[in-house]
Model the fold of this input.
Amino acid sequence: QVQLVESGGGLVQAGGSLRLSCAASGLTFSRYTMGWHRQVPGKEREFVAAISWSGAGTYYAESVKGRFTVSRDNAKNTVYLQMNSLKPEDTAVYYCAALDRARSSDARTGGLYGYWGQGTQVTVSS
Done:
């Protein structure tokens, strides 16, 4: 079965940095667009960032562009989210997700992703 396991979340002060990792198994990792999404209780899930199967295409929500960087290592079946200059409004549970047969226009749409991890909590204090 497909499994996505996030790690790297935690508590950090505003202006600090965290790097999230997502280890994938049970799928041909290099064939999937990999995305990061976040959710706060009471709000809908929000797209954060994604990276195409080759790594050539990256996508970011406007709210994180310039602060976050998504990358992948296909040899390790792992996708990363480097988060810099964190703000309290970045506080959320961050989820890793996998999207098969993706068009570039699909990468920002969370509902199209077929596999999801359990999430990792990121808390940014002021």
About this structure: The longest strand covers residues 92-100. The CA atoms of residues 33 and 102 lie 7 Å apart. The radius of gyration is 13 Å. The chain is about 0% helix and 50% strand.
